[in-house]
Design goal:
With 424 residues, this protein is α+β, with helices and mostly antiparallel strands. It has helices spanning 18-28, 168-176, 215-225, 240-251, 271-278, 317-335, 390-393, 419-422, and strands spanning 35-39, 52-53, 63-64, 68-71, 82-90, 104-108, 120-123, 128-130, 133-136, 146-147, 158-160, 181-185, 189-195, 199-200, 211-212, 229-236, 256-260, 279-283, 288-289, 295-300, 307-313, 346-349, 354-355, 361-370, 376-380, 397-401, 407-408, 413-418.
Amino acid sequence: MAQLSDDCFAFSGPLMPVAEAERLIAERIAAVEGHDIAALGAATGRVLARDVVAPIDLPPFDNSAVDGYAVRAADLAGEGPTRLAIVDRVAAGHAADHALNAGEAIRIFTGAPMPEHADTVFMQEDCRVEDGAVVVPPGLKRGANRRLAGEDIRAGAVALPAGRRLAVQHVALAAALGLTEVEVRRRVRIALFSTGDEIVEPGMPLPRAALYDSNRYLLAGLAARFGAELTDLGILRDEPKTLARAIAAAALDHDLVLTSGGVSTGEADHVRAAIESIGRIVFWRLAIKPGRPVAMGVIRGGNSGEGAAFVGVPGNPVAAFVTFVRMVRPLVLRLAGALPEPLVALPARAAFSYKKRKGRREYVRVALRAAPDGGIAAFKHPQDGAGVLTSLTETDGLAELSEEVTVVEPGATIGFLPYASLIG
């Protein structure tokens, strides 16, 4: 269970800035306890519990970076071509039969071990072969096209640090070092449900004034991208006592309870009241658009005062997406014990006009397209509504407009967050 206390956030302002919420998460949320052993084939997405230390040099021996001819640089003429006798042939997975002597060359292929005394490799397309000899051109530096043992990583060095969330390239590095498994942190356990009398499970008959539940599928998919172990609790109706019982029960064996809907200020928004009866809402309004009514808190559990984290995202699907990637994402990574993965907005050129309120961070859905001048620019989706799901499917990412920005004009440089970076 998450190591949280009722005062772990404690923000007293009316609207919490995004940066402040992220700072508090980074400072005051502890990683879950418990480790697993993961086979490499199942390690992608997991978080390392211990450093991976290289047991061997990588590469383990000097080898050729190209197909060509291995030579001794000392044999090369200062000016003009050099003629060397071809005395052997060595392919990847094999070693040369003898050391290279003066005036000799060995035919070599990419990845093959460098013959003894050889220090330089000429690419085959730069050479001419005639009568059992190879003629090599002048000008190649000593050591060219040779990969040195350990140039990638030395034995005993930290190849992957504890806290690294493993992507496929990290797993490939572990495999290259000969490992078959790694020690990882246990998965973050998330209980998920949607709320609202108007929400219906996809596939069921759709009553008048009802909506199919898309948020649960959205949030479940996002949580899975960050390696969480998910429990889907379905749809809960707008009844305060039922909500409180369900949330309290989920908190007993989960690290995070994640809900969608019911956290605004309306008379039918009962999630806040339910949480306040079994724990504490530490903030419930962010200076962000879309997604201001996002609630974060702690659900009491156990005699020690420990509790599970709670996040309630808005019911509108675009707001749910934005608040997940900006607030739930860093929380899940922190609970998972992952190293920080800051989101870096890429500079992009705006192809739209936009006005916003100062003091609030806004995220505008944009698509990258060719501009009339031949460059690439960010075009705003024509619909701004927080419930317009196609504004996510028909765009490439979010334009991040800081709290200080009030006006965007065509040609201005804006920050662009690609969906690929937001969803892990």
